[in-house]
Amino acid sequence: MVHASDQDPSGACCKRAEYGAKETPADGHGRVARRALLRAGLAGAALPLIAGCAEPERAANKPGLSFNAGWLFGGAYQPRAELADFDDSAFTPVTVPHTAAHTPLSWRDWDPAAWQDVWIYRRHFDVSSLVSALRGQRVFARFDGVMVNATVVCNDQVMASHRGGYLPFSAELTDALRPGENVLAVVVDARCIAVPPVPAGSDPASIDFMQPAGIYRDVSVLVVPRAFISDLSATPADVLTARPRVDVRCTIDTARPVTGRATLLAELLDGEARPIASQILPLDISGSGLSSASLSLTGFGPARLWSPDSPALYTVRARLTVPGAGAHEATRRIGFRDAAFRPDGFYLNGQRLQLFGLDRHQMFPYAGMAMPARVQRRDAEILRNELNCNMVRCSHYPQSPHFLDACDELGLMVWEEAPGWGHVSPDVAWQDLVVENVRDMVTRDRSHPSVIIWGTRLNETRGYPALWAATREAARALDPSRPSAGAMHVHNPVEWAEDVFAFNDYSVTRQGAARLAPPVPGVPYLITESVGVMETRPPHFAWTDPPEMLARQADLHAQAHSAAGESTAYAGLLGWAGFDYHSLLGRPYSVKWAGVADGFRVPKPGAAIYQAQVDPKVRPVIIPVFFWGPGGSSAAGGASGASGAVLGDAMIASNCERLEIAVEGGPSMTALPSDAPRYRNLPYPPFFVTMPPASGDLVIAGYAGGRAVAELRMSADPAFDRLAIAADDEAIAADGSDATRVVFRAVDAYGNQRRYLTGEVTLALAGPGTLLGDNPFEFGAYGGLGAVWVRSLPGQPGVIAIAAEHPVLGQAAVQVRATA
Ligand code: GAL
Question: How large is the average pLDDT for residues 573-580?
Fold first, then answer.
């Protein structure tokens, strides 16, 4: 049935600009696929539609034409710098995602003074050749994320402003555009402003993560008819039955009253192309403003279900055709899955599934939060495919749309939460913004099958029941299908009012072993953080820490996950944290070394326990949680540990049934997985072995299903140590923002990480790219490895060669192609 012409009751998708009079579609709205433009006859002149626009972005849920290239960055704001006639000849050409800072960021010692300022970006663009094609169209600039507050000015008119760094907003440019050159200016206010997560009157150390400034996510331009689909929500229902359906609701934004009957065609596509269900609705759109239309797609079942092992995806496509005003198309990628938190755990598609995962901050050395799609997506790949997680918590804010797209594709379930950390400001405006953030988050991401729960209570906050009721209701109104939660640091059900009790559980025994508080009886219960680092004293879990401390991290994560298997009442556990991140509360170097992988995304010994939790048929894994050198193995955490049980002095994480371990020339010894109670609920508990002295190379053979499936060798002889270098990708796009990571490491003769604490690595780059990173890189300060990112230059394809040199370890080189 059609429910046309009623104002969108949620009010979520349109906001009035603070200083301008424009209404701006906020989230995930107004997508305009290239094909839709072609059909509407607008792009006959071939894209780019507006000079300087690149091809439409590839990401599945991304609308519009990329407007990432061609910006000018003017540094600190100067009076009049937002006005069209301002002389910007001294500005620096940049491509977004971009970090605004007075000095380039290193991997260490970030100082918020470097970015806490007001910044100016400008972009010139020309629409002269398209003026007639644009007649009757509406043009929006969409910003996926600007840190912290943004004011958008086009040809001297303020078109929109936005508060907060983690959610998208749009500025309608239509009325400001003129033939010839246009100037879009963005004033970015990145001072320590009282915008969630930062409370009023606080400094940057009030929260445990840094917030570098800039237009740090994508910018796109949308050209749409004067009546267009500004939001599409598509909710699968009855997914476990033979007759599933998809409930589709379109918000239609009409600039002027439309004469004649419009039609809405909605289709369900298997994957991205094959239509399997459709429905047409006639619509009466009488007034201007927002209206909505709803319908259901049926008759296609049963659907292939989405799950971590088989993340089947479908697409909903809606096409609005308005006589005399053209057509507009919007798409959303969806998945059919039934996700439910119950008192006896989490159920996916009717079956209990233990949640096993990590928390993620979106911070990167050198770049702040400004990394392109490829790098964002890679984090999801690491979590799912290397660390075997089935869930990630986006702590403590909505994260990159590219990351979420990858989670959909990889089957990585997501907890997403509104920006916050430990504080609530008492003032109404601040709290209103929290509610608005929840609305914008849910509107942006409710189609993602990977998202299974909303964090509507800000991380580790107490009190304010009215606020949490408002955020919960805001989420429920937009998405009744998902539960609400909020990570608590008090184990007190009286303060709790969400659907799932989520607890950050850092409990330890007196001996220092990880343990968990008992689940709150009778309610769904999830551990949202565990292990972490200790705040005031070691362990930090930095590469420079003693090896037994690094091993202890693996041990604690193993114990915590195992403890979460003690009762089905624990839906699962998310360890703190996936990756190291930058924080004024972190030591040393203002880094929080809580990651099981470091900020460069290199797995630390602490990650081994995650890497091993996979069926050996998929990937046999043998990872010694120690270094092997002339003195033998460095000690592991298991033995120094916790309960005092003698388990052997070296931990090996493996999914093999049995390991045969020998020092070259010596007898072989057999090791079996630990049967110690504190690992008993892990699918693949660690091994503990008392190692002989390192009289030669170490050889570990792994057996599964009765046969040898893997072998690992480690060298005791440092004479063969060398410098290794590797790039994640052979090729990147020559668009000025695409980048790939290049890791350099001190390794032994077989490629194992050496503990190496001296010397500098000097890097040289030749070809059309830039190095994002410290050069030279101090091995000693970091612990024998490091990384940089290689970024392309816009419109300059070619081979980028990176050479690295260490005074003792020698040279290594790698190449990356930048492709047109
Ligand atoms: C938690 C908090 C995390 C992090 C951690 C300490 O309480 O939620 O964001 O600060 O402590 O490492």
Answer: 98
Ligand 1 atom at shortest distance from the alpha carbon of 487:
8
Neighbours of 330 (CB within 10 A): 27
Q: In whole angstroms, give the CA distance from residue 523 to residue 729.
A: 45
**Is residue 208 within 6 Å of ligand 1 at its C-beta?**
yes
pLDDT tens digits along 488-510: 999 988 889 999 999 999 998 87
Mutate to test the pocket of ligand 1, among 210, 461, 504, 553 (most ligand atoms within 8 A of CB): 504
Greater pLDDT, 242 or 44: 242
Non-local (6+) Cβ contacts of 198 within 8 A are 192, 204, 206, 207, 211, 423
pLDDT (average), residues 333-355: 98
Question: Residue 459 CA: which ligand 1 atom is closest?
Answer: 8
Of how many residues is the chain composed? 820
* Whole-number Å distance between alpha carbons of 37 and 680: 58
Strand 731-733 versus strand 810-819 pairing type: parallel
Our answer on whether the CB atom of 580 is closer than 6 Å to any ligand 1 atom is: no
Contact 728, 635 (CB under 8 A): no
User: 10 Å Cβ neighbour count for 707?
Assistant: 6
Mutational test site, ligand 1, from 208, 395, 585, max ligand atoms within 8 Å of CB: 208
pLDDT single digits (tens) 666-694: 899 999 999 999 999 999 999 999 887 77
Question: Nearest 10 degrees: CA dihedral of 164, 165, 169, 172?
Answer: 90
Q: Is the CB of 532 under 6 A from ligand 1?
A: yes
Ligand 1 neighbourhood includes 459 CB (under 6 angstroms): yes
What is the 3-state composition of the chain as percent helix, strand, coil, each rounded to the nearest 5?
15, 35, 50
Mean pLDDT over residues 607-631, rounded?
A: 94
List Cβ neighbours of 473 (8 Å cut-off, separation of 6 or more): none
pTM of the model: 0.92
**CA dihedral sign, ordered 806, 807, 808, 814:** positive
Closest CA to 398 of 54, 26, 108, 24: 26
pLDDT reading at 5 higher than 90: no
Share of the chain above pLDDT 70, in %: 89
**3-state SS, residue 766:** strand
